[in-house]
Backbone:
């Protein structure tokens, strides 16, 4: 399976246009995938997850995620399953500095 998806700059203005629906997203350092995440729907949307990542960056995210330059997203019916498929298609173990790409978990800090 191949994954060909457009990428957007990872900044507040671009993330504001991300969908408020369930789906998967990829965080990129230029052309290198760093993390695959998913949003289950409802209040947990692609946009809310990306906004949480931006907030986390402002409060000192781990070094790997400070490298994020772009993001991409895809809407789907089963985000958990699709996130696993996308991670596998992007190289699984080859991504994220030799670690399997997994769903990222970020809690926005107040």
Residues:
């Amino acid at each position: 399976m191949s994954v060909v998806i457009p990428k957007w700059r990872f900044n507040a203005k671009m993330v504001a246009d991300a969908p408020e629906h369930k789906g998967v997203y990829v965080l990129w350092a230029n052309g290198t995938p760093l993390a695959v995440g998913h949003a289950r729907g409802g209040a947990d949307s692609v946009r809310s997850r990306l906004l949480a990542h931006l907030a986390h960056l402002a409060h000192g995210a781990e070094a790997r995620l400070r490298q994020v330059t772009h993001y991409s997203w895809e809407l789907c019916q089963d985000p958990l399953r699709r996130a696993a498929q996308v991670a596998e298609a992007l190289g699984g173990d080859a991504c994220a500095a030799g670690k399997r790409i997994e769903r990222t978990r970020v809690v926005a800090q107040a």
The chain has one domain: 8-94. The radius of gyration is 13 Å.
